């Protein structure tokens, strides 16, 4: 049996490697599409939608969320430690944002973050998801929904009374997601951010 510290290291590295799997890049490769030359050039569900349509985009969204959720669920089963669960979730998110397989490039982390916190804090996640969907429907812009979600999620965690370690863990991830959206923020300010069609 592998001692616990070694097992944690294996799971941490494994989570990063699983998080590094880019389903957007995989779908694009299957379809013969170069996502870097389309739309924002990002490896995310929104750009997949622009390049390959709704079905592929939903598939990427669900799979990117599932990889984060699966790694945290595995950590919960093995360790029963919130701090360890958070670190394993972080590794998956970082892997998605800075994928080993894509030369340390990647997506903006929204779907994988959603998957991680769907397991860590399901009620705040549900509240956030409902708000995000509503904002996207109203504004027709995924970036606006994602940015609003980065504010709503930690606030809803505080309101519900989630363990402080999870709240504090959410804050830097939300900041990182916002930073990853800096080009979108610029386009929103200059009113050049394209809506969903």
Task: Describe it.
It is a single chain. The protein has 197 residues and is an all-alpha fold. The chain has one domain. Helices cover 75% and strands 0% of the residues. The longest helix is centred in the middle third of the chain and has 26 residues. The radius of gyration is 17 Å and the shape is globular.
Number of domains: 1
**Sequence stretches where pLDDT stays below 50 over 5 or more residues:** none
Shape: globular
H/E element string? Answer: HHHHHHHHHH
Structural class: mainly alpha
SS elements, strand count: 0
Total of DSSP H or I helical runs spanning 4+ residues: 10
Q: How would you briefly describe this protein structure?
A:
It is built from ten helices and no strands. It has helices spanning 4-19, 23-31, 45-52, 54-79, 82-97, 110-120, 122-139, 142-160, 164-180, 182-189.
Summarize the topology:
Elements lengths: L3 H16 L3 H9 L13 H8 L1 H26 L2 H16 L12 H11 L1 H18 L2 H19 L3 H17 L1 H8 L8
Helix pairs in contact: 1-4, 1-5, 2-3, 3-4, 4-5, 4-6, 5-6, 5-9, 6-7, 6-9, 7-8, 8-9
Main features:
mainly alpha, single chain, 0% strand, 197 residues, globular
């Amino acid at each position: 049996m592998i001692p616990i510290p070694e097992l944690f290291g294996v799971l941490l590295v494994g989570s990063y490697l699983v998080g590094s799997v880019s389903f957007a890049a995989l779908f694009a490769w299957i379809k013969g599409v170069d996502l870097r030359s389309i739309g924002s050039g990002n490896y995310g569900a929104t750009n997949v939608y622009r390049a390959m349509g709704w079905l592929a985009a939903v598939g990427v969204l669900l799979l990117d969320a599932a990889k984060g959720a699966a790694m945290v669920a595995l950590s919960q089963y093995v360790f029963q430690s919130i701090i360890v669960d958070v670190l394993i979730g972080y590794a998956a998110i970082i892997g998605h944002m800075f994928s080993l397989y894509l030369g340390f490039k990647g997506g903006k982390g929204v779907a994988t973050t959603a998957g991680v916190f769907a397991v860590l804090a399901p009620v705040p996640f549900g509240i956030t998801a409902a708000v995000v969907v509503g904002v996207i429907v109203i504004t027709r812009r995924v970036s606006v929904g994602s940015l609003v979600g980065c504010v709503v999620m930690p606030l809803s965690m505080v309101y519900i009374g989630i363990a402080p370690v999870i709240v504090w863990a959410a804050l830097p991830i939300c900041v990182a997601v916002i930073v990853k959206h800096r080009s979108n923020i610029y386009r929103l300010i200059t009113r050049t951010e394209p809506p969903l069609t």
